[in-house]
């Protein structure tokens, strides 16, 4: 169903001057009833409408930055809001619009846009819910150059036990991020699956796995006195140990993005030649 954006939030990476300048242009030229800025960007640009991200009640959030800016925004918004990314980052898999097209494309999309849903992972430790992951949840040894042992169960059955530096549990969206760097496959976003990738495993037969999205994946560390860190999308950190049980499955709340012509295969060709 086509949506119309009457209230728009603008989030920009304050460390990228071009992103801040673009935010100013969009604010000054966009024809919608209400535009909100984050307080930091409002102060930098001298514009009104300052509202923290976690207080924004809008129909669309425009993110000017890279993948990190989008992930930070998703972890701070209080409810599902469609994100439209403008690429000012180094890689930019998630942003769908290039800076030179920003004003024209945004003016078109606020008048009518469709929403795509991207799978996220529900993450919990000992039954306590952590923020859901759009890219990945990574379990790594807390001390560099130290190895840990991980026990991985899928739907109550043993998948494997790895001695490794860590484990990456990735969504298809995150398959072009840490998962790929650790040797995992690139997976189309339309595939309902979770990718499990050992990081530097001490085992010749250790290979990535792709399991169905609804699967319940339970991970435990096996070595006493070996602490690990659980990192969700590079935004949330938790210390875990052998007494902790980590559970991962498809989240009932996907991330929402404005459909603006994203083409995975083309991006892979352009960004990862």
Helix content: 10-25%
Low-confidence stretches: none
CATH superfamily of the largest domain: Probable inorganic polyphosphate/atp-NAD kinase, domain 1
Structural class: alpha+beta
Strand line-up of the largest beta sheet: 7-6-17-14-9-10
Largest sheet: 6 strands, antiparallel
CATH class of the largest domain equals: Alpha Beta
What is the strand tally? 18
| Approximate shape | elongated
Spatial gap, N to C terminus: 36 Å
| Total of helices | 6
- Radius of gyration, CA atoms, in whole angstroms: 20 Å
| Strand composition percent | 35-45%
Structure write-up:
The protein is of the alpha+beta class. It folds into 2 domains: 7-118 and 254-271, Probable inorganic polyphosphate/atp-NAD kinase, domain 1 (Rossmann fold, 3-Layer(aba) Sandwich), CATH 3.40.50; 121-250, Tumour Suppressor Smad4 (Sandwich), CATH 2.60.200.30. The chain contains 6 helices and 18 strands. It has helices at residues 17-29, 39-45, 67-74, 102-109, 178-181, 264-271; strands spanning 7-12, 34-37, 60-65, 83-87, 115-118, 121-125, 128-133, 136-141, 148-154, 157-164, 166-170, 193-199, 209-212, 217-221, 228-232, 236-240, 246-250, 255-258. The strands form 4 sheets. The protein has a 6-stranded antiparallel beta sheet with strand order 7-6-17-14-9-10, with no helix packed on it. Strands 13-12-11-8-15-16 form a 6-stranded antiparallel beta sheet, with no helix packed on it. Strands 2-1-3-4 form a 4-stranded parallel beta sheet, sandwiched between helices. β6 (121-125) and β7 form a beta hairpin. The relative contact order is 0.16.
């Amino acid at each position: 169903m086509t949506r119309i954006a009457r209230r728009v939030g603008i989030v920009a990476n304050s460390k990228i001057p071009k992103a801040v300048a673009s935010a100013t242009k969009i604010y000054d030229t966009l024809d919608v009833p209400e535009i909100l800025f984050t307080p930091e960007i409002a102060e930098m640009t001298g514009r009104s409408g300052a509202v923290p991200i976690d207080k924004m009640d809008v129909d669309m959030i425009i993110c000017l930055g890279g993948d990190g800016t989008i992930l930070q925004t998703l972890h701070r918004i209080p409810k599902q809001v469609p994100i439209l990314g403008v690429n000012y980052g180094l890689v930019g898999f998630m942003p769908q619009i290039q800076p030179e097209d920003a004003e024209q494309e945004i003016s078109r999309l606020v008048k009518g846009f469709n929403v795509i849903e991207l799978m996220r992972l529900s993450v919990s430790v000992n039954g306590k819910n952590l923020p859901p992951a759009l890219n990945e949840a990574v379990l790594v040894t807390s001390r560099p150059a130290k190895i840990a042992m991980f026990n991985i169960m899928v739907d109550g059955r043993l998948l494997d036990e790895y001695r490794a530096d860590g484990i990456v549990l990735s969504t298809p969206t995150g398959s072009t991020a840490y998962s790929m760097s650790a040797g995992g496959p690139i997976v189309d976003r339309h595939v309902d699956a979770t990718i499990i990738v050992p990081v530097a495993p001490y085992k010749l037969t250790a290979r990535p796995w792709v399991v169905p999205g609804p699967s319940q994946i339970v991970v435990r560390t096996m070595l006493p006195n070996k602490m690990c860190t659980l990192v969700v999308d590079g935004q949330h950190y938790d210390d875990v140990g052998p007494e902790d049980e980590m559970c991962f499955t498809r989240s009932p709340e996907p991330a929402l993005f404005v459909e603006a012509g994203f083409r995975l295969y083309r991006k892979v060709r352009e960004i990862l030649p």
